[in-house]
Amino acid sequence: MDKSSDSSSSKTPSKMAAATFRCPPELLLRPLVRRGSQVTLKPKLTANISTSSAKNTYKAAVCEDYDKPLVVRDMPSASPGELEPGMVRVAVQCCAVNFADILICKGKYQVKIPTPFVPGSEIAGKITDVGENVRMFQKGDRVFGHCQLNGFSGEAIASAQSMWKIPPSVSFEEAASIPTSYGTAMLALTQRAKIRSGETVLVTAAAGGVGLATVDLAKHVFNATVIGAAGGPEKCALVKRRGADHVIDYTKENIRERIREITDGNGVNIVCDSVGGDLFTQCLKSLSWEGRIVVIGFASGTIPKIPANLLLLKNAAATGVWWGEHKTKNPGAFRRSVDHCVDHLLTGQLQPYISKTFPLSKINEAFEYVQTRKSSGKVLVNITESVG
Asked: Do 190 and 284 lie in a common domain?
């Protein structure tokens, strides 16, 4: 691992709401937010959010009101045996910060959660209890994966199908940085783009969580020539250090001209795009014959219109990837995407990048760090560090 530093309702969430949470968190559909397209979700929490005199408690960062700082306070632990079938209870060690967490706490995400609630979904920790029909885990197992909510707390409940065991040589921090970013990147490159060794891959938003994971996989696992596009010299330098053969600073360089120069006019075989907008069109025009462009997200806030004539002229393909939805639509691919990343991590081929880790007491500072785009790769909150 590389570091640069350092509501309580019992109703089951609707399928649409649950699916929304499986979307890559940092790549939410911002145009939907701007149009005010929201679904109100009454979250199923691990415990009632209320002042409690219970003997067993844990710390949690609670969103008590939209667009207000989170409040770290004690929460009552659930009683043993209260789990539904197929679920596990996890003592959370660390949780990744994603941009969707921030929007949810502002009440601006496409799923609106009534306050109070505990945000956070990408976790690593130890299992403390298992529900019926759970065969793959037992108490004491070190695990990582996804929960719908409650990640920024000492205790969370998740589906066993959304969790993986942490190998002995892998830290909690490394594990928490894997599932969404590397799972998305793996599916984008293999299932959607069908990458072949030696091809040229262009990655936009290359300094982000999914971007750096895509650079890492494309270069160190699939032996591709990697071009990373990012905003600003510092982020471009980071992308270069993480394995990209070439970098493009799209704040001052024309991406089409640079790709033409880098590839001697041949174009790139694969584009993994997390930006959308006008940049998507530039990338599409930069494809080689029989090139493939994979839509991962729309960080620009603009969903592009695809000029289909370019697909015809280049015999090209445009496709999309939604990693989380594979949990229900293709559970085998869902689990394999992370399994394979863990395998490559253990061989030393992959190195997740964590730009900064905050203690739970600094959760609001962590949100600000991500919101102001100071972060690269993953930002984590260590739940077990002092919150005094």
From this structure: yes
**pLDDT tens digits for range 55-74:** 688 999 999 999 999 999 99
Convert the chain into a string of H (helix), E (strand) and C (coil).
Answer: CEECCCCCCCCCCCHHHHHHHCCCHHHCCHHHHHCCCCEECCCCCCCCCCCCCCCCEEEEEEECCCCCCCEEEEEECCCCCCCCCCEEEEEEEEEEECHHHHHHHHCCCCEECCCCECCCCEEEEEEEEECCCCCCCCCCCEEEEECCCCCCECEEEEEHHHEEECCCCCCHHHHHCCHHHHHHHHHHHHHHCCCCCCCEEEECCCCCHHHHHHHHHHHHCCCCEEEEEECCHHHHHHHHHCCCCEEEECCCCCHHHHHHHHCCCCCEEEEEECCCHHHHHHHHHCEEEEEEEEECCCCCCCCCCCCHHHHHHHCCEEEECCCCCHHHHCHHHHHHHHHHHHHHHHCCCCCCEEEEEEEHHHHHHHHHHHHCCCCCEEEEEECCCCCC
Residue 309 belongs to domain spanning: 180-320
Whether 334 maps to a domain, the answer reads no
Average pLDDT over residues 28-42: 44
pLDDT digits (tens, 9 = 90+) for 278-298: 999 999 999 999 999 999 988
Region 127-147 average pLDDT: 94
What CATH number has the domain bearing residue 289?
3.40.50.720
Asked whether the predicted pLDDT for residue 264 surpasses 70, the reply is yes
